[in-house]
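Note to self: keep these together.
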Amino acid sequence: MSFNSSSSSQQPASMRTNGHLTEARDLNVQVQNNVEQSASELLVINAVLKQEIPDHVKTGDVAQALQRTDAIEGRIQEAVSELAQVNAALSHEIEERVSLERELHAAKSALADATSDQLAN
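Structure:
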């Protein structure tokens, strides 16, 4: 997914910002899903290796590789958690901005109505 800047010049700045935030969140969700899938695959591979490799072979480089996959698995799980937090923060920011835009639109409409009422009197 890429950020589409060609149509952004035709939209108000606030809509472009929210659109970019939404695209960033959606891309982040996609990355989170890929990382989660990779973590699951690594977990299965690691479990198979631990079961299939005889104990007398689990020494030296093999033992070190198994330990490293455990460590990598933990880092991937941390990354998934951090991505979920970023997604939640992006969603909250988008909701806040949409709410503020509604309030701004209502205020502008009220100001326009008040101005036209004063001009009519």
